[in-house]
Write a structure and sequence with these properties.
alpha+beta, Heat Shock Protein 90, two-stranded antiparallel ribbon, 10 helices, about 15% strand, His_kinase_dom, EC 2.7.13.3, transmembrane
Length: about 375
Amino acid sequence: MKLTGREKSELIGEGVLTVILLLLLNLSIFILLNGALKSNPGLSSAVYIIKSSVHVGRFQLWSYQNVFIVLMGIIDVWVVYWRLERRYKQMQLRHIISELHYIADGHFDHRIPFELSGDHQKVVDSVNSLVDSVIRSMNEEHQLKQSKDDLITNVSHDIRTPLTSIIGYLRLIEDHQYRKMDDVFKYTHTAYLKSIQMKSLVDDLFEYTKVSQSDPHMKINAISVNPMLEQLAASFELEASQKGMEISSSCDPENLKITGDAEKLGRLFNNLISNALKYGHGGHNIYLKAKKEDSEVVFEVSNDGEAIPQSAINKLFDRFYRVETSRSKATGGTGLGLAIAQSIVEMHRGSIKVISTDKLTSFIVRIPIQYKEV
């Protein structure tokens, strides 16, 4: 910590004043001691006997004046050091308080820059850590607010579009703006498709908010992985065949088990498989794989369809995000499926990532074998 010129002057003045006071105190004690020796012959004789007995040859090693000077010198040095050290620590505290006021005035990117010793350094470290924690909390709060605003904006936009179409077609019917009943059936069918689109969005939004709760309700049970994957493959077999794709599953070892929420894990893999069916253009196969690695189960949901652009990989799990070339409204996607999948994985203390090449696009999910409460 760098002292100012004024603070250096304070330390020098403190040292000089302390030395003067100590010299006056030493002189007073010395005068009182001399007076006591002169007024007390017995004490003076005792001092003389001790003095005459401590010598080497012709050299006298001891006198009470020398002992007094040495003792007082040691004590004086310690007192001067103690007072200067105390004043210096007070100056350190002033600097810390000044830095705190500077940060409190809104300079949240500032940190106390100097290094001290002892407890004061602990105070500096604690202040810097506290400021970092506050900044993180503020950023998280800002991101949460921005996230809520984006959620409302996106939901409003995605609901308004089909709702506008539904109102428009129903108004045509209400105002009898049709020539024949075939037109009525056409309008109602279009309105029906738009309402299904709205329901899909609302259902996905409800599911996302449910799995994103800070304290989601979990029904933890033991789950046999191989039967779960086989059941998933069978449930999507018809839809896959309609798209010219085959779906297969494998598990290593076959008797592999995990603990988790079976319903939510089912929704997780449903979303990943549906995603592969919708966007795996040009693909012929969907692979469901599971294997044990240490204390985790690694799941892979892969397809050999069109690769995902690398620029979109980091955004896939954002709410309402769609890759423009394939994830359009024509596919029926709401942009919430992968966000829901990520939330379910995080609920199970796991992780999810995407690897996409021209040969294979794989969603890799890692989930601990044994679910643990936080």
